[in-house]
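[Q] Does anyone have a clean structure-token version of this?
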Amino acid sequence: TSTSTSTSSFATTFVSRSVPSSHRRRHTSASIITPFSASTSDASRAERDCELLLRCCDLARASEGRTAPHPLSACVLEVADGTVAASSSSASSATFEAFQLGQGGTRAEMLACDAANGAARGGTAYVNLEPVHGDCAGETRAVEALVASGVKRVVVGVAHPLPGLRGKAIAALRDHGIDVDVLELCESPGDAVSAARARAAEECRRVNEALLYRVATGLPFSVYKYAMTLDGKIATSTGHSSWVTGAEARERVFRERKRSDAVVVGGQTVRQDDPRLTSREEDGFQPARIVLSRSLNLPDEAQLWNVTVAPTIVLTMKGKRPDFQSRLRAKGVEVVEFDDLTPLAAAQYMHARGYLRCFWECGGGLAAPALSSGVFHNIMAFVAPKLVGGGKDAPTPLGDLGIQAMHDALPLSGVGLEVCGRDILMRGYVPNSSNTGRLGKMASAGYSLRGLEFHVGESSDDDERADDGTLISVEHAAASLAIDDEVCHMDELPPLSFFKAWDENGALSNFAPFPVTIDGAVWMTVEHYYQAQKFAGVDSKIARDAIEDIKRAISPEAAAKIGRSVQANHPDCVRNDWDNAKLDVMRRALVEKLTTFEGPRSLLLKSVCDDGRQRVIENSPMDAIWGAGRDGTGRNLLGALLQEIREQELRRR
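[A] Here you go.
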């Protein structure tokens, strides 16, 4: 089975249907997502399964910080005699294990199967996350690779949380006669084997906790970090806070920033501390720095206004200090206005930008309303063994939450302790009932592993009041969004929207992991080719180096960063006809992708049915040129190009 299909015309996959997939609610049958079968009852086999799933989890984390946050996936192949030919975690070396590097990286299953080259026939494949597969994924290659490898069994740590993807690969693998066991439903450890399964299942959830929370709450997974003294102060009475903790704790914060889409602070932090909010590393991914300021009372000069290291986004109220807004934009700072800026509105906007994980380092005045409105999901508290006193003038990590009695305090669950030099790190999840979205609704209705009648607040015992400490309820909330398949009654066809390459319909994105071959050169993604063409034919060492650097970029966002930086800093190196040529450049790369790969081709053509044609929208809130923009009135050039290509192929039929 080939992992890609080349045809001269991609219209051959068009199938007329009365109702497009976006008109349907998603369906996940209970027969598709089932826990371990009787065939895995052997204790030694089950222990081996858990061991290799934990190995997948370790591998999957290897891409954190190297690219923008994305669903973390890895694959380990065990050959039929029970051995794993894998001694390296590098996806590029000839091993039987691999991880996906970024949203534009080759699927882990494809990398592992290519490395095995048939040696895994009759063996078992392990994946911490169900492979991406199905109509709305525009992707079939991971399943095709596993089928072609000849494995007889696949063990899945957790089904894919996205409603349109959940269970699709599992069903497809079983349709090909492959035994599929899903570990995710293991909940209560009754014996040693069950305990091992529960531990492996929980670790698979934690690897992708950001994706689970994003689906279950409708917000990016948000961590609130603070550092305080032993007497509960984050600064002295004068506001001085450098440094509360030691170097080891600060290094841990840098690592946490690097695995996040954005670092979020309030205006007070900018005025008081003038922070950089970087990971202190030049290589790899740099998160955006986001400042929330309703008044826009911010200094003219600040380290955050230097956007050469990392992008800065300022969120404020509509009409505030227009002259200052202009000065910020002139420096490259993005300014976004809100009718009413609240922590929840900001988090919803970050969700619209496709963020998976946000790291909040704000003060207590902003943290209190953020926590109260369900923005925070995890608390990361550093405690330093020092005292500063200061009374009420020394700030604390949280402002007023309106809690009057101790039995109403919010009990964290899944609490862990870690020593960082002289400091102690305590982490825990906020109660499910304090969350937004489906998770908050289910928890508030009394749904929990304790039973339907238990409510937080009924007991003064924190052990009874806290959630169970696992992410099972979060996974169940996400799974509940994959509901029965039935026609949605709508007056008109909904648009086919896409944005992030890892999300539903993401195969249409120029960042999606579909390499294109143009003029004999292979480019990792459409975005790689597009960025390089800015400098094509320019007789300049800077331009030639930029093309080579873009071609070697490990991810599409890295390629985009290089291209935009060289374009901004060396405009003389951009080809003279770029403004007129860029649409044709993008069109050529898209046609090559859609001609070569069946998945995105099928996804695009299925936007046509007996009811008409769906509008294709690149749903980026920050790009009003290639995308629809924040208010939906953008030019949507990428969506329009895809529609144009679709119509040309249908006419050719």
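[Q] Thanks! Anything notable?
[A] Confidence is low (pLDDT under 50) at residues 1-40, 85-95, 449-459, 484-490.
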